[in-house]
Structure formats: C-alpha cells, structure tokens
Amino acid sequence: AQSVTQPDIHITVSEGASLELRCNYSYGATPYLFWYVQSPGQGLQLLLKYFSGDTLVQGIKGFEAEFKRSQSSFNLRKPSVHWSDAAEYFCAVGTYNNNDMRFGAGTRLTVKP
Amino acid sequence: DVKVTQSSRYLVKRTGEKVFLECVQDMDHENMFWYRQDPGLGLRLIYFSYDVKMKEKGDIPEGYSVSREKKERFSLILESASTNQTSMYLCASGWRAQPQHFGDGTRLSIL
C-alpha cells in the first residue's frame, strides 16, 4: 500500500525567504501527487497536482513542486514566502481512478516578520 | 465559485447519540468523500461515494455509515457516538477519485 512521509512537522521561515517542504512517497505504480494547504479553521485547498508530463508543476499562490522519481519525492517550493502563507501543508499520493489516496501527517509553516 | 458546504462548524454531542453530519456540493461532482483529521495522523478516509446510493468503505469505517440519496448531498452518520470519535470531519468532492474541493470542516466533540 502507498504511504506518504512529510519529515518536517513544523518549519519556521522569515518573510521573504525561500521555502521548501519535503514529501516522500512509497508507491508501486505511477503515482498521482498532490499538495494541499489548510489555513486555520478552514478546509483543505488544492495547491497543485502532478499526473504526468513535465516533472515541475506550477500551482496557485506562487507555489511549485518537482516530481523526482529516483528519489520518490515531490517537494513543494516557493521562492519568497509571504506572511499569509502561514498554514498547514499536506502532501498526498493516489491513483487515477481509485479512492486509495493517502495523506501525509502535514507540515505546519510559521512565517516570521 | 465552487462550494462544498458542511452544515455545522462546531458540534457537541453526548455518548450514545446518533449524529448526522451533512455535506452539500454545488459542482455536480460524482465523487464525494468523508475524512477524519486528527493531529499527527493527517487525513484518513472514512467513506467514499462515486454515485448516488453508491458507497465504498475507506480506511476507518467502523462506527460510521453514510447516505447519498441525491448527487449533491453526502451525509455521515455516527450510529452511536463515542468519545474516540471526537475529531475534525472534512467533506470533499471531486470529478475524479481524488478530492478536489473541501468544506471548512466540522469540529465534533463527544462528551
């Protein structure tokens, strides 16, 4: 069965600094990969997804993620963090038409002024 | 704008009560999901529905049931609430088997 690991429970960055959130997955077939963001008191919002093709995926809010098959990773990046990016971020892996999606435990991002 | 609406943001119930959590989506999605979110565990799928009256168990269906009588509405039922069901519950919908849009969640406390 597939699984997702987000190694960092909590990350703090300064506003304007670059950000990278790590995600590693374990999956036997071609994975479909997702990043979601959850602001306090709200549901999850889809930031970006990777199904196939170009391994560098652009998402909303200036985020991007790179699929590296050799490293089983799908790390999320942003070149310059804004205070409004403070939230919890979830990586997830699934397949095209099966409801077997797995979420990581999440990484909480704090942004310092 | 797309919308998934959960009927309650906060709910407090007593042990043994039958609890209904309601979810409505306005995007005509075939697939709807109920997740439970607990700190350090991420999201865990309770039930999934791919069509009206169709459902599949997720990872943690015990103690829960669901109902989907209309395409836009997916209800989660706690048959006899217990304290270990205190949690955040998230409804989602999508046009594929992955959840695309989430509601704001219902924080349920069972006393």
Helix tally of chain B equals 0
The secondary-structure element order of chain A is EEEEEEEEEEEE
- What is the average per-residue confidence, as pLDDT of chain A, rounded to a whole number? 91
Tally of DSSP β-strands of chain B: 12
Shape of chain A: globular
Q: Which structural class fits the helix and strand makeup of chain B?
A: mainly beta
C-alpha termini separation of chain A: 41 Å
The percent of residues in helical segments of chain B reads under 10%
Low-confidence stretches of chain A: none
Mean pLDDT figure of chain B = 92
In quaternary terms, these chains amount to heterodimer
The beta-strand count of chain A equals 12
User: Can you write the helix and strand succession of chain B as a string?
Assistant: EEEEEEEEEEEE
Largest sheet of chain A: 6 strands, mixed
Largest sheet features of chain B: 7 strands, mixed
Rg calc of chain A: 13 Å
The poorly predicted ranges of chain B are: none
Characterize the structure shown:
The complex is a heterodimer of chains A (113) and B (111). Chain A is mainly β and 113 residues long. Helices cover 0% and strands 51% of the residues of chain A. Chain A has strands spanning 3-5, 10-14, 19-21, 24-26, 32-38, 44-50, 56-58, 64-68, 73-78, 87-94, 102-103, 107-112. In chain A, strand 7 and strand 8 form a beta hairpin. Chain B has strands spanning 4-6, 10-13, 19-21, 23-25, 31-38, 42-51, 54-57, 64-70, 73-78, 87-94, 101-102, 106-110. In chain B, strand 10 and strand 11 (101-102) form a beta hairpin. The relative contact order of chain B is 0.33. Chains A and B meet through strand 5, strand 6 and strand 10 of A and strand 6 and strand 11 of B.
What distinguishing features does this structure have?
heterodimer; A: 113 residues; mainly beta; six-stranded mixed beta sheet; four-stranded antiparallel beta sheet; 0% helix; B: 111 residues; seven-stranded mixed beta sheet; three-stranded antiparallel beta sheet; 12 strands
